[in-house]
Structure formats: structure tokens, C-alpha cells
């Protein structure tokens, strides 16, 4: 946490309200995000309990598993989830625009431009918390290797038709969520924490209810009081008024309400199975569906507050204007979405359990680039973020006092104007350190020449910079490309556009230090579905 | 002393609890791992930590460790360990009891299992019900399990020191369910680092007698006392609250309320304190940042003032920008479509 963020948090403590950490919204929000509030069974790895899902805040779709240890009910849940999520994703898959992509011709090795499709928009998924993002990954992992009856008629317990496909998409979303600045799959807590500083620690900020209480406290109450209520207040039955945002449930809810309800359901089911005639069966069927309805209403009761909280968080975020470079990052998300659509359509197998060495290195490199790019873009979009970089000496704002024209000493002289600027900041400048400013959205480079020795009474120093590029081809610089005296300009010591590192080898060229080429055993190592175990109830 | 009861009496009950689903699942999994005299457990252990010993057969010793009271069980465990080491075969101790001195008073610990190898090595086995998916598990949970196992290793070392030919393995076996199934899989975790850290912390702990000696005469933590008295009694033991406490201590919410009331900056995180140097209260930091207090020559104060000035300037410029955009949008003559786009 930088000092400027700490200061914002302290101000929040003092005022009793969260303080802004950003003046624009740094993540793209689509017009119709799909909100998913999942719940899972405590202590089980892949046993979802229920979910609220939908794009309409007034009409969430409730999915529930009456007995989470029952494989058939779990599959029914996943099939229903696929029915709710996949149409949302697929709705974006066919709306495309033409785009160009650089590709290397394998025959000649030359770079050529290829006309490809790019989805004009992509399906966005919002979950309440970071644990929810992990749960999406987990769901993806648990589903993508399943076999349906169509894949393999002999497989025991075939998965419903669209479940493996949903697994592949959720895996892609989960993987993409690890790319800094990506907006395909977002956690509401992460979104809010990026834009506001609360008066509590970052650990406590993971509680969605408490976080919202700080940002938008109810009338007449301070953020701290409201947050404490959100964390601890319980109703007459001992249930939390603001249930955890999931996927984990409150143990008191499990023990006092859910476990007895599931037990009733189990009993009703056993009774139904042992019914002897049609009339008795009818009555017991009624009991069974009553027990199921009760579980559904219990789950709805603990998920609805979270559902509302996520939408409230989105409302708060939409009040901020979107940062101008967030759109650029969303375009990358659209590329990623389109690429996965193409992989699915061309019948490629699901993502492997473990990435091979080259893929892993590529992912790591691209995430590093994305991180650097995100940091640069956020600072350029937002004066408040830039203030943090200025405090760290990585950027400075200065007023131009003098411009002196000089030229290179080549046969065709080019302009190299010397610009003197005045600033009270102390950037970390060494000789010939490159600094950048934004000129009509493009970066212009200058290098540091020298500093005037003494600071004057106001603590101002004079710095001399030499402009290096973006002044056109002629001897005289293009109009508007050289700073004018009196102009106040923000310079950064970091590059605006991050380039990735050198290209990595193809998988066939994997060096022996990293396990060597995948080789012939790749076929035999093809991903097998998880073995079926007899542990489940049925 | 039951800190949970005390916290309730103080009016900030601990929010901890375990879901019976997790509890049942954990027990069922442990029972499955230890079924058939621990055959599956020993197979996993031999596969990963067997070394050059012979494979454990059906003649693995599983000594009975039941005795009266924790002291009795700890003595029984020590005896069983000695016997098993002297015999020179495989032995599985199910839920042994170990004693460890913490701050001058004995604490009793119960590992899930300890295995004695034929070569006299003792290995701690920790059975957890979080899954190991594609051979990797949640790092924070594995870390917690490793710290827990390190304490067992320390406690076992006290017994091993007086047992001939015994040695405590610094690598423990972590047994978890595999992927999404209930089948056990295992992984070896090296706990040398955690052991060293725990050892150091244990030697640095203030002894309980010393803490008790500092307390005023007649201090009691009896939950039946009126809450003001209890409050004063608890306040007599100086806490060092940090947000990490919330995940571990029953009294954390009580300490947090106190810490917040004092305006301590640690309530925002330990790292914050480091950043702010000598300034320890929220009011103090804000006064220093606003230029009302503090020595401008102090680098922390100077940095704070710069941060405050930069922050104020940025917020002002953003507000001006937004006001400008709003004006442009409300002025019909000034290119309405562009203004609307900015305001979106």
C-alpha cells in the first residue's frame, strides 16, 4: 500500500466514509453483465449448494441442490447452470466485426496481415468476491473433463450434454481473470476496492457487505458502525443479517437451518422410495417437494442479500465515468473471448490440467506485460493514480518556462528542441533518463539533460529536457508538437505502451531444461476424465 | 480459560464455528485413511518417504494409547514410541498425545498420526479434508497445515531426545482427498523453516507467570463478573491488535473495538505502522499531513504533506474536469453529442 492510499484510508477512518482512490472507472462494465452468486457445501471440493444467476437484477434465476452429495442432483444443477450461462456467452459469439491480425506465414516466415473475425462485445461475468472467482475456476476444472453420453456411450454416470462446454468456458474466464486489468470475470469486492479506500484493513475489505457499508453507509450512520453491523449483526434466529458473500456459508446457517432441512429432505425421499401404493406415493411426493421447496427458500434467503449487494456495487461503479484506456483493455478481452470461441468451434480438446512449459512461460510473460500496461494506463487516465506515481518519483508535473531550438548535426538536421521546465517535484532522473508525455493520445519521448543546481525559495527546480520524436519529418517541428512556454505538462518516467519481451519458442522447440519437446508421448498423456468413485450417495 | 466465553461476556462474541458438513466430511475422510489398521496411510507414506526400509506388511504395530487424562496419554505415547523404536519395525500411532511447553505452562497436542519407521525415524502425518486438485492444494491451507505439523515435530523432538536411536523426520506427510473424490493422496511437506520459526517464537514468548505478575492483585477473567470489571481485567493485559488476529483469536473483535477507539493506525494493517514511522494515531497522522502538527524536517511528515497536497490537487482537478464536462453537456450549443459521451 502506498503512502497516498494509506492517507486515503486514514481520511476514511476520520470521516466515517470511504474515500476515492480513483476519479474514473478503471474497468470496463458491459451493458448486460451476468451476475453469478454461487454457494458451496462446506468441506466438499466440488459440491455446489446453489446459485443465483442472471442479467436482470429484478429476476435472478435460483438454482439449488437439495442434497449436495447426490451426483444426479449435482449434475442437474450443473446442467441448469449451463442453460443459464451458456446462452449469455453464446449471444456474443456470433456478433462479429472484421479485424486484422499479424500472422507469420509458416512457409516464408514473413509477417502478413490476415483478415479475421473479432467479437464486437463479450459476455461479462461478475461474482461477489475473490473466492467466487476461485470457485468459477474450480467449477470449470470439475466440468471440463466430464464425458457426456454422446462422447462415450459406455461411460458410467454420463454428464449432461452442455456441462463439459460450460467447464471449458468457465476455465477460460477463470484463467483470464488472472490477467491484470482484464474485465471478463470480475469480483465485486476487487472492483470496489480498486476505486475506494475504506477505514478498515484490506483483510476486512474482502467482506462485501462491510465494504459497501463504508462506501455508501445508510443515512445517519458512519461507515464503521454500518460495517460492524454487516459483519456481526444477527436476527432472532441467530442468523447473520448480512450473510457471507460466498461461496462459503455461515456455519450457524449450516448447522441450525440447512442441515435439518436436508435431513428432512432425505427422510422424505426414503419414505417415497418405500411407498407401497400410488396414493401413499402421491402424499409422500408432496412431502418431498415440500422439503425441497424449503431448502430452496433457505438458500434464496442467504443469497439474495449478496445478489442485491453486487448490483448496488455495480450502480456505484457506474457513477464513475469510464477511463479512456479501459476500452483498450476490453478490446484485448474481446480478442481473448474470440480466440476461445474459435478453439471451441474447431473442436480442440479442453484446456489441459497443467500447462506445458512454453504455454506457462507465455502466460506469465503476457501477464507481466499486462501488469505494466495497466499501471501505466491507469496513471495516464486518472490524476489521482498519477499523484501516487508522482509521490514515488516516477512522474512529475512541470510548467514550461523556455524552449530553445537545437538540431542534430547530421546531413539532414532534425529538430531536437531543449525545453526548460519548472517543478517543485523531485523525480528520480539520471543523465539521459527517458521521460514521456502524452501528445494527442500518443507518447512523446524526451530525455533529461541537466538540472539547475539550486532550488529557489518555493522549492522549485528547473529541469532541461530534450524532445526526441513525434515532430514530423521536416527540419521544422510540426505545429503543436513542441511544448509552448506556460504549458503545464505531466511527464512520466515509465513507458506508456508496454512491449512484450522476445518471442518464446514453439512448443516443439522447448529446451531440455524445461522438459524438452512434448514428443510422442503427448498422445498417450491426453487428458482423461476424472475417475468415477462410489463415494456419492446414489 | 475459554476465550470464546470471555468474548461473549465482553459483548463481542467470536464469529467462529464449524459447519457440521465440514466436520462430518473431515471425520469420514480421516476414518477412511486410517481404515484397515492404516494400510492405505502406510502405503502412501512408504511410497513417498519409505527410503530403503522394507515395505510395511500386515504386521504393523498399532499400539493402544488410551489412558486417563492428557498427562497419562502423553506418558503412554512416549512409552509406545520408545517400544516401537526399540522393536525396529513399522508402527502407527493413531492420535497420540504430545506435551509442549508454551510460555512456561504445558500444552497438550494431538496429531492425527505419527508413524515410526524401522530405522527409528518418526514422521508426523497430518490428515486434512481440503482437496489436492491436480497435485496442488490451496497454498494458505497447506501453509497452515505445515505450521501445525511443525509444532508437533517440536513436541516429538522432546521425546526423541530421551529415546535411543530415534530421530524426528523434518518432512511431514500431508494427506488430502484427491481432486473431487474421497480417495486419499499425499504430499511430503518440508517443515524445517516453520519448525525454526515456531521454535524461535516459543523461546521469545513472555512466560505466563511474568504476565500474571504484572496484573493487579485480584484480577479475574471469570465470565460471571460484570462486564465493566471484565473489561478492565482484559485491558490490564496489553493487546497488540492487528487485522490478522480476526482470523485466529476469539477476542479479536473486542481488541479491534479498543484499538479503533484509541485511533491506532495498526487497525488498517501492520504494514501501515511501518510506513508511518513514529506517528501511531489516526488523528496524529492527519494533523501532520494537514500541517498542523509535526516537524517538517521529519521525512515521514514531509512525505505525508506531499502526499496530502498531491491527493488534494488531483481530486480538485478531477472535480473541475467533471464540472466542465457537465457544463458542456448542459449547454446545447457546445457540441452536445461529445458532451454526452464524456458524461456517460
Task: Describe, in plain words, how this protein is organized in 3D.
- The complex is a heterodimer of chains A (538) and B (344).
- Chain A has helices at 3-15, 71-93, 130-144, 163-176, 188-195, 208-215, 223-232, 251-273, 278-318, 326-345, 357-381, 383-391; strands spanning 19-20, 34-40, 48-54, 61-64, 96-104, 111-119, 125-127, 185-187, 196-197, 395-404, 418-423, 434-439, 442-451, 461-467, 488-492.
- Chain A has 538 residues and is an alpha+beta fold.
- Chain A has a six-stranded antiparallel sheet.
- Chain B folds into two domains: 15-204, Lambda Exonuclease, Chain A; 215-275, no CATH class.
- Chain B contains 13 helices and eight strands.
- In chain B, strands 1, 4, 5, 6, 7 and 8 form a six-stranded mixed sheet that branches.
- In chain B, a hairpin with a 2-residue loop joins strand 2 and strand 3.
- Chain B starts with a helix and ends with a helix.
- Classes of the chains: A alpha+beta (538), B alpha/beta (344).
- Chains A and B meet through helix 1, helix 3, helix 7, helix 8 and helix 12 of A and helix 2, helix 10, helix 11 and helix 12 of B.
What attributes does this structure have?
heterodimer, A: 538 residues, alpha+beta, 4 domains, six-stranded antiparallel β-sheet, five-stranded mixed β-sheet, 12 helices, 17% strand, globular, B: 344 residues, alpha/beta, Lambda Exonuclease, Chain A, 2 domains, six-stranded mixed β-sheet, two-stranded antiparallel sheet, 13 helices, 8 strands, 49% helix, disordered C terminus
Strand fraction of chain B equals 5-15%
User: Could you tell me the mean pLDDT of chain A?
Assistant: 89
Mean pLDDT over the residues of chain B: 85
- Quaternary state of the chains: heterodimer
Amount of helix of chain B = 40-55%
